[in-house]
Amino acid sequence: MKKLLVLGTLLVFSTAAFAAPKCEGDDCPVKKDKKARHEMVMKGDRSDRKAKLEADKAERKARRAQFKANEEKLEKLVKEYKKAKEGSKKQASAREEIGEVLNTVRDEQIEIRSEQIKVFEKRLADMREALNKEQEPAAKNAWIEKMTDKVIAEDGDLGEALRSYGHMPKGPQARPEGLAEHHKGPKAGPRGPLGPDGELPPPPPPAPEEVK
To answer: Is the entire prediction scored with pTM above 0.70?
Structure first.
């Protein structure tokens, strides 16, 4: 019996001796490695975001410069058009050049709208994918179970239960889920309400440079 007790004690002490030291605080190698990986990922994300912001800023600056150049050219051409004799070749030439500048402006507008529609289509595809998942029986039953608990907790107040679940915004504009389809408003597109002729409104002119 004594031999067994001694053997058990030796095993306990030998296991403790060979076990890895307790890891605590920021000096822990495992924590250090995890923290380093996290910082590396975050740094990469920040770097990507910064690069995108810089690219967007440069693009906006280039568009503002192009807009200003087009405007100055149009002002000059309009002056020439108005000074020229009515029906003259000079007037016709000025009008043609005005059309060429406006053609460039229109091409840029169409390009911008095309990019905006691509972004809108991507968002729409993501929404459809999310809707398909929500329509699955298991997901629907899970929603009903959670909402049952919330409705009971809110004494039958459906609006409050939906708000707490994240389906309704707070404020006077809030309305229960499902009523949105009955709301009638202006026909909307990827950039907002459509114009009277059914077209998207033209993009606003670039904002002037901020005064530093």
So the answer is: no
